[in-house]
Amino acid sequence: MTIIIDPQGSGIAGNMLIGAFVDLGADASKIKEIMEKSAKEFGKVEVTFDKINKKGISSTYCDVKMLENNPPINYPDFIEKIKQLDLDNNVKQTSINIFERIAIGESEVHGKSLDEIHFHEVGASDAVADVIGSVYAYYNLNYGNEKIIGLPIAVGGGRVKTAHGILPVPAPAVVEILKDAQMIGGPVESELATPTGAAIYMELCDEIHDFIPQTKANKVGYGAGKKDFDHPNVLRIIEGSNETKSDEIDVIETNMDHLTGEEIGYLFNKLLDSGARDVSITPIIMKKNRPGSLLKVISKKKNRDVIIDTIFKETGSLGIRIAPNIHRGIAKREFVKKTFNIDEKEYEVTFKIGYVNGEIISERPEYDDLEKIAKDTGLALRKVKEMIR
Predict the structure, then answer these.
(1) Amino acid 110: pLDDT
(2) Is the peptide bond before 195 cis (omega within 30 degrees of 0)?
(3) pTM for the full predicted model
(4) N or C: which end of the chain has fewer CB within 10 A?
């Protein structure tokens, strides 16, 4: 499946992304709960969803009302509060990555270090709700293992009032965040791309294209913006499919002969948290017959630099091999949720199903769901696996 985020018509904002995800089937009631609960640490918000019409386009509007807003705090303290939230690890880490993009954009503009940055608009309670709500909806739709393509962003024009005074549109922080993306001025004299929306877009997108690639549109969702213009103020997200059976990855390798088993285990998890698609560690014999390990990481291009930095930092390696843009054959994958009754309690298990030419070649339950059931019931993990076959 291919997901296309299309902000060409009227830009992008966090609530527009959430609206489009809900339009595509994300759980609105759960998203509302997560947004209001997560934002509470920074100020109360009230979230509502409405089906509205924007210049002839039926769309979903996510309204985030800021009922209170605590004083701005510096970036390290802000991130520490996010880390303490009761959220799924994927949702939490992706949200932190997005806030880091915003903070880096602000630091570049103001010439300050991250430790000196104080969030203003981007650290307000409604922005926290927007980021976490967007990321939760993204994973709720099982888009985490899908290819996400971004199209050029309409950024608007004119000037906008900010905590730093009146600034040109797009605001300097937005320009910094959208480096390497494609921007289009207009079509109105108004701010269309917010720092929050831009950062979410840059974090979620695997690739940026000028045009929609060859794809078959299966579903389309529209997220409405707050303002009314002479054109439909909506963000479009297309859920498509194609027959392409390959994609491009980077293979990153290094040899290790000085880490303990515990340190290797820590490195393994650290690389997965940094965005690695897969990590393998193979015993090898190095020169002078020294026993060692071969670390091999499969990565998307967008995560290459952070993964390399992680390897250098955690291993002290003096050299890392990178084989970029390797084509790999891939089976079509989809995720299906099934419910099982175990010890008179219902559990939901996600199955990863692989297809080749329409034929199922594998159907495996996700480990995290099995682990949760085992811990909750006290059953052995292998027993749980047998029970949900």
Answers:
(1) 82
(2) no
(3) 0.66
(4) C
CB 47 within 8 A of CB 24: no
Please state, for a pLDDT cut of 90, what percent of the chain lies above it: 67
Tens digits of per-residue pLDDT, 158-189?
998 877 788 899 999 999 999 989 999 999 99
**Hey, is 23 helix, strand or coil?**
helix
Q: How far is residue 260's CA from residue 266's CA, in Å, rounded to a whole number?
A: 10
Helix (H, G, I), strand (E, B) or coil at 129: helix
The DSSP code sequence of 234-284 is EEEEEEEE----EEEEEEEEEEESS--HHHHHHHHHHHHHTT-SEEEEEEE
Residue 314: its H or E element: helix 304-315
Alpha-helical regions (H) of 24-88: 28-39, 75-83
Kindly give, in sequence order, each residue whose CB lies less than 8 Å from that of residue 239, ignoring residues fewer than 6 positions away. 1, 3, 24, 217, 218, 219, 220, 221
Distance CA 200, CA 135 (A): 8
Residue 142 buriedness (CB in 10 A; 0-12 / 13-18 / 19+): middle
Helix (H, G, I), strand (E, B) or coil at 309: helix
Kindly state the tokens that stand for 28: 């609105």
Beta bridge partners of 219: 239
Which contiguous run of DSSP H or E holds residue 48? strand 45-54
295's tokens: 């670390």
Token reading at 147: 């290819």
DSSP-based three-state secondary structure for 285? strand
Per-residue model confidence as pLDDT tens digits over 233-255: 999 999 998 644 556 788 999 99
243 token code pair? 């027959």
